[in-house]
Design brief:
Order of helices and strands: HHHHHH
Helix content: over 70%
Number of helices: 6
Structural class: mainly alpha
Oligomer: single chain
Strand content: under 5%
CATH superfamily: nmb1532 protein domain like
Largest sheet: none
Number of domains: 1
């Protein structure tokens, strides 16, 4: 697998770890604990600001090359772009639910949990599709010149603020939660 896809795969692994942490937080009431909505909100902030605004942009650059070189894959590329847009909308919706819960807007806890659980399902389904179907396809079709084109055309991307070489202050508590959970 090309190093660009390896980096995107690593993002998927990290996002899955984060989504697992969110799932654990949502299950705490079943074990007599309290859901830490602040941790979930931090996770959503990371997903909005890294996955939705950096990771998906990188993928869309690769998908543009796929469509350019293999026009018969245009429908797949359109589906993936639509999924990325919907993922961003889903992140914003889940964030709004949690923000309301944190600001004491009257919301049923099951409504919040269901909304966030739906968000997690959408995220995991998308990651699974890319890992099983899309990345292997691209890896089999792209030649070195395609990767050179992608790298040359790529926008400058920010380093991962949570899982990168240096965790930003904004995400230190979230990183500590991941470490404590064994993620």
């Amino acid at each position: 697998m090309h190093e660009v896809l390896q980096a995107l795969h690593a993002d998927h692994v990290n996002l899955s770890r984060l989504l697992t942490l969110v799932q654990r937080e949502l299950r705490k009431p079943e074990q007599g604990g309290d859901t830490d909505y602040a941790t979930i909100l931090d996770a959503l902030d990371y997903i909005e600001n890294y996955a939705d605004k950096v990771h998906h942009v990188r993928e869309n650059e690769i998908y543009a090359r796929l469509e350019q070189k293999f026009p018969d894959r245009a429908e797949l590329v359109d589906e993936l772009r639509t999924e990325h847009r919907r993922l961003g909308e889903s992140t914003l919706h889940a964030t709004q639910l949690l923000s309301n819960a944190l600001n004491d807007v009257v919301l049923d806890k099951q409504t919040v949990a269901a909304g966030v659980t739906d968000f997690i399902g959408i995220q995991l389904q998308h990651i699974g599709r890319e890992e099983r179907e899309v990345f292997p396809l691209i890896d089999s079709l792209f030649e070195p010149a395609d990767w050179q084109h992608v790298i040359a055309q790529a926008a400058q991307h920010a380093e991962d603020p949570l899982f990168g070489a240096q965790t930003r202050d904004r995400y230190r508590t979230l990183y500590a939660s991941l470490s404590a959970a064994g993620e």
